[in-house]
């Protein structure tokens, strides 16, 4: 099984914390859609006969596209690839794009999952982030969306300067009250060259506090697990049967094809990524060339990636798989380096599966980097 990711590089406005590739101008929208379709044609053979079980429109903000453009891309995928029965087809959306009419149109055109960038149900947080929607729109769009979609995910951000634990708990409770079955939640991070970084440098906004973020992460885990959610990946919580099939495929090392500027692809041995420039991307595709760079992953690269993704998930890192795929040197190294974290209660080894504990989960990326094999 494989996935196809479509990067839609357009947004209404720039969020202060975002460092993704996008443009706030829709001038080249039609050329971009034509290029996406052409790239799908040029890369038709890359997945072999693997059935496509997930189609994911990310960005950027795919929900600003006319429904006809989204439909064209879906129809192109069905025409060119073998699509599994009942695939998960997700569109990332912002609340200000989701009128009732728009939600109905999405539900009638093959989309069966919405991933909605709520971030917060409170005005002061949304203003700090420079989100295009307000708190009223956040609530209203979900009240409507839940009437037409069963499978909805929302994003929530914690660790925001000025947000105390009480407001964070109210954010979580609001999502629970609406019956949302999947929540992706991230600590606010300060990325280089973002507006947020500049505000912090100038003292306009205080630096996010790591200790507060950790505390709010633990509150999130407690609240959601008590409400029947499974914490299946560091930043993702889902009710049974509502895990993101698209994201799970990344963490489980399945193949995926990334279409559009800045999109990444993976076939098990190679990783490739398209150029993060809309004009160059469109021009290159128009010449029937692929604007991408390819990297062949060494056994060490693959080992490191497996450790990184595995420790973020409930599936953990299989010691048997490490030995079978990479050999006893890697297995012995992993067990030796992991021992300090087992001793400190951040990792546990059960049935030959290495996993982070509740205490270790928040630190899983840092732990993984300490377990990386360096040639």
Overview of this protein structure:
The protein is an alpha/beta fold and 375 residues long. Helices cover 43% and strands 22% of the residues. The protein has 15 helices and 15 strands. A nine-stranded mixed beta sheet has the order 7-8-6-5-4-3-2-1-9, with helices on both faces. A three-stranded antiparallel beta sheet has the order 10-11-12, with no helix packed on it. The longest helix has 17 residues, at 210-226. The protein is globular. The model has no long low-confidence stretch (mean pLDDT 93).
Class computed from helices, strands and strand pairing: alpha/beta
Task: Please report the total strand number as a whole number.
Answer: 15
Low-pLDDT segments: none
Largest sheet: 9 strands, mixed
Distance between the termini: 32 Å
Quaternary structure of the protein = single chain
Count the DSSP helices. 15
What overall geometry do the principal axes of the alpha carbons give? globular
The proportion of strand residues reads: 15-25%
CA gyration radius, whole angstroms: 21 Å
